[in-house]
Amino acid sequence: MKLVIAIVNKDDSGAVAAALLDSGFSATKMATTGGFLKSGNTTFLVGVEEEQVDDVIEVIKKHSSRRMQLMSDINPYSGGDYVPSNIQVTVGGATVFVVDVDSFHKL
To answer: What is the pTM of this model?
Structure first.
């Protein structure tokens, strides 16, 4: 058995959750925060058999997209004369980990 841990942008979490369910996969969904933007994410935990891992990853990939976002470039070391500017960064997509499960118990 494998545990798929997928960190997805909060804007894509609803579509990913619905697609996983429609594809017959049960998932635990947790609100998380991280990254250098300190933006909201959703972490999905999906327990599947080894032969289903690629299917789960494909569902997540299909329903999570990268996009460009503007953020303020603030330099805290400027000494007061720094004028912030907007920079474009890529956000979204998904980060996926697949780990072995030694034991699984439904209690």
So the answer is: 0.77
